[in-house]
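Worked problem 6 (solution included).
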Amino acid sequence: MNFFQHQDKAKHRTVTLVVFYIFALLLLAAAFYGIIIAVLAYAIPDYRETVSRNFFFEPGLFLAVFGTLIPVVSLASLYKTYCLSVGGGKAIAESLGGRLISPGSGNPAEQRLYNVVEEMAIASGIPIPPVYIMDNEPGINAFAAGLSPNEAVISVNRGTVELLTRDELQGVVAHEFSHILNGDMRLNLRMIGVLFGLQILTVVGYYGFRIASQFGGSRRSNSKDNSGAVVLAVILVSLLIMILGGIGMFLSAIVRAAISRQREFLADASAVQFTRNPNGIADALKKIGCPKIGSAVRAPQAAEASHLFFSNISRFSLGALFATHPDLTTRIRRLDPAFDGKFPKEITRVNLFDESLSPQQRRTPRPTIIPTPQRAATPANVAGLSPVLSSQTAAASQTIQQNVLQTTLPQIGQPNAEQIAGRIAVASSLLENIPQEVTDNIREPLSAKAAFYAVLLMESDDNLRNRQLAYLTGAENDYVVKVTRWVYGRIVFLSPQSLLPFTQRLTAILRSLSPPQYKHFSEVVKTLVHADNKVSLLEYTITALLQRDLDVYFGFSKPLSVKYNSAESVREPIAVVLSILARYGHDTETAARSAFSAAAKELPLNNLEMTPAEDSALPSPHESLTILSQTSPKLKRQLFTAMTTCVQHDGQITVKEGELLRANAAMLGLPMPMF
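Solution. The predicted structure is:
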């Protein structure tokens, strides 16, 4: 799969959707016009003779119908699209009855689901999405929704977590991650908004019919006025509008099915790439075929979101023309050619403590008990014990990263099956490196804040750390300060590879903060980072991830949108970013300029020049990357190729080059897997 190519294809599919929508809207208006002409011709013989001579074309009526219907339907589509753009995937999940689960859920089934999503997200290089469970849906189904990978949510039916093994659950989740990475989600939300307009007439007609019927019933006792005729006319018009709305629903179902079906085959194939296990998703589909299970979703709003789901939301279908998903047998045989077409007759709940779970997943989470500061290592004595071990860890880490980066960088945006599956295993391993007592105790926003602060203390010397802790004592309550000290004492020996997934885990928990709480938290983070008037690579990387994951979520940054399509329009920001990358990975100015020149050749720019050396401090690319995040997928592909060319120019990829590249990728909204 190629992230950049799929983003381009998603843009083209949006154009296709708009074309289909315009055609359906014109067809709907023509049908309305035809119905009115037919009614008038039937009721008024003279009118029938007049319009028949004009081939049933009445200019005034034609303009009235098209001039009224098209704006009404279009405004309804725009309104629905706007509402979805504000609420995003979260609004969809909650409207379908989804309940947000926490990373530290005491429910083994929910924890297993969250573990699978967490591993997949870290391996894919995207933020850990919020996970919802639809408690009232006993069937097997799931969906991903959002406007971008940074804003995605995953939602599953209750039956999905209770009836699927871990391998099967991983296959379903991988299918949904494919939709996230392939750019399908934005199109899916747009489709809901656009097609809503075609169906709005059914709603208008229904409520018109109800109001007129109730009004008519209350006026029956009064026979002295002609209100009965008015009510009858309103009822007839309402029924006519409902019929027209039915035509709109018919057309919207065709459009939804035409755009959705082929993407499901792609997502199934990508899920196999992610998991390296075709049996996982194939067996999940076989369980859906069980007559007593299925994949039905009973929520009232499910119909308009039917194309989002893993499988058909209804057991009954009017045929392939309206199906948003290929039939189960066809999907299964593409994954398992030996499938005989027979589905299981009975499905039992999965034993959550069987051999499919790792020892860590079998453990029942302990209650949150933060030890007192006296029982934990303090920053001072840990700092006194750690220099030798830390340097050994850093050296080993650098060797590992240099080897892995050589094969990772060329695959960013174009991962293959072996690397994706391998990264899932790496993500799981890195998460298991986090001390279990920390995992057990960091479950809610306050302790997650403290743990995040502890990460920011990692590269401080004793004097700086004491100043940071003194500030923290005044900015936060005693509990947060106590937990910060306790967590620091237990993560100080973690490698950089484990610190980043640990930070991603924390940001997922921090979504439970209120916007004012998050604003305060981000201000504290900023103060801790700038306590020494400079920004370290670790600080820059994790704050970039924080901005990517949470600033948009809480509404403090706008979602990514395309404003720039040409490299010339963003020449200066490109020069800033490439200059910093070049100087960060090369010892001399001559070597840095050579790397910069090689990178510049990958871009459609002439005479691109490096920025002065004094402008190459870490905070300086922030504004430039914010601008570059608004470039087109095609330009981002060229830019990221230039960035990787820059860091690989001397044949030696350092740890700091790799981490800086990761931070830049986060700011640009690009998925960069763990290495």
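Discussion: The chain has 26 helices and four strands.
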